[in-house]
Here is the input.
Amino acid sequence: MRIHSILYTLVFVFSVSMLYSQQVTKSEKGNFLLKNGTLVTVTNGTFKSDLLLEDGKIAQIGENISAGNGVTVVDCSDKFVYPGFIDGGTQLGLQEIGAVSLTVDHNEIGDFIPHMEALTAVNPNGVAIPVTRVNGITSAIVKPTGGRFPGTAALINLHGYTPQQMFAGYKAVVMNYPSSGKRGRRDRRSEEDIKKDSEKARKELNESWKKVKLYSKIDAASKSSNQKKSGYNPSMDAMIDVVNGDKQIMIEVNKKADIEAAIKWVQENELNAVLTGVKEGYRVADQLAEAGIPVIVGPVMSIPSRQSDKYDIAYANPGLMAKAGVKVALRTDSYENVRNLPYEAGFAATYGMGTEEALKAITINTAEIFGIADQLGSLDIGKQANVFVSDGDPFETRTDIYHLFIGGYKVPLESRHTLLYDEFLNRDPGVEKK
Amino acid sequence: MKNYIATICLVLMGLFSSAQTGDVLIKNGTVITITDGVKEDTDVLIRNGKIKQIGEGLSVGEDVKVIDANGMYVMPGIIDAHSHAGIDVVNEATAPVTAEVFVGDAINPYSVSIYRALAGGVTVSHAMHGSANAIGGQCETMKHHYGEEDPTTYQMKDAPRTIKFALGENPMRVHGEGNGIQPKTRMGIEQVFRKAFAEGREYQHAWKKYNSGNTDIAPEYNLRKQTLADILNGDIIIHCHSYRADEILMLMDVLEDYGVNQICFQHVNEGFKVAPELAEFGATASVFADWWAYKFEVYYSTAYNAAILTKNGVVTSINSDSGELIRHLYHEAGKTQKYGDLTDNEALRLITLNPAIQLGINDRVGSLEVGKDGDVAVFKNHPLSIYAVPQYTIVDGIVRFDINKDPADMRLDINPDETFPAFHELDAHDEHRCMEGVYEFLFHQH
Here is the structure.
């Protein structure tokens, strides 16, 4: 009897701890030796090699690296090792449920509010974050939406318990260039009204830009003469680095005529700019290439912006721009399905970009555009250990991911979606209990 | 004289209202039949719009168009069990029950979205009413005869009638929150169905009584009630917009009480939670590959939904509900290999035979079999690969999409004064049309 009760207790304790460990799988901090994988470095070709991740960095690449003390060996035979993918534009962590406005944190009120920091509103425990990273996406731009200057975007790594732990070292002020297109299906404005509205908006932009430039001159003058600036002007302060060209400006612009105007505007103001969206970029690809302005395009899986356009033009757009010599990165522009980034790249690859270039568009190109290519975007020594291991081409839906590392952590490949699968695949009780 | 003209008109209408059928031989492809395995180096011959022969080394006279599918994949035309492509209006959002309206009255044969669907290998779509009402309008099973200008030629002849039902947030928001009438809750939605079915049954009985001569006074004709009676008679397949497990169980209970058993749950994001109940009832499920989190009732979702349902024996399809997704349903189906490791054939069934079953047209389409309709999609690379590119889409033996003849400008009639049609700044979810027409309606109410 007593033995029984002890046994029961043991079984109970064991099963409870099993349950517990099933529900909470924590990330594992450590050093990891990835043995015998095929490394797809992006920058230095593809070859079979070991890869050592140490102190959160890629420490060694080479054959027969021996595992030192406390290094966990991860067998990668028959597997591929990729640098983590980077999404060039999302609302990940800024939005929990689309239709519940109080869970939406990327669209503050105001037309000129560049001081709104997306990073502030990132929920590190957003349910979509693990859902995203299990598909090999390790970093993403989180971006405010709304008026002309809706705020400041930030690059985050998809692991951490505070926004600061997730911050990946890049910020940009976001601007929505005045559009001369229809806002969508429900836009009932006449062509003439649209034209008037966009001309007015451009005029207003130029006027506010004059003020921004004047403000930054005053700022520089007061700094050089050691005088204290008067007043509280957070929105103006947020623009100073942009005016000086020290901070990148992300300009959302899509229509051909608007892209041309935006290029001119960027050049006149000598800004460090990246254009985003760029749906009709293929129509002005040579101009973009000549101006040397990089682009972040997406979603690739979009319908054409004009009824008359070829059905596949959005698929082909990134490839057409890349061929013209534009530096192209991709984005999902999503929050819940950022996980589809590899498939967005896959469609771009299929419709003219090619696999190699499409892979760059979600790794090294993105990192280069953001000026953090020394940290992210390829398997190179010294870069951050954002790495995943797959059994094939990650653009293919049949490919599975086996291991994922962000910084110094091996992150479990679990999300709400996998947990619900585990729980409900063979539900017990089934229908026998009514 | 009048009669004479009317007869001519009827004859002419008859001539114009049947879409063309054609002959085509697809040579040397890898033929994915769905029901009889994959056949290498095989030909598919379509005669008068029907599959006449599947085999090796078939030959035809010079009058028949030949497609060289060497190195390509030949599969049944893709079927989308939930679409709003090619229709001008989506919601008759004026009452919780609008069973009398019919989407077939709003077909737009010039809608370029039909061509774009063809460019994704889709030959049949289920043009559905929206989800504003608990019992919405009747839907049309549409063949993608793009190029025909008579809207009636799009209706798939002899396809069973279908009707849209809707549970949860959408009818609650439109009628309860929007107009202050039932349903405002999922309790209210149950009672909308029970009341409607009770009225349908009463109406049925009234006609029965009249037809059997028990009364001399005919009941007043009412199309809404007649449609409800037709549902109770089993003449209409229900396609019900649904998300949460509890509401799915509720509707199955109501249907059981009325002896109705033909139901396909649409979206059904929480179907995975009640997969054994769905299988036992014989209900089918038409789901998104991975859409979730856009509203609260899809927050507890999993992209493994299709796999869980399939593995529990529920006939499952993957649909688009979107003018964007309809263009790459083959890719959406491929996601079930990521989320749940479905086999190639299981994954492809989700966009061919299974949606055909859900629409009651599986004797006509959904697999490559002799005698079935000549609806075929030809792909470069395997259709489940990310590198797949549709090459030809054939409907009833007529090539409706040919990648080599795809026009750079889709305009049918180009106005020389117009440089481009309007540019639309759309985001991905703008193409989600289930609630289209509702916002305008609510706006006018307040």
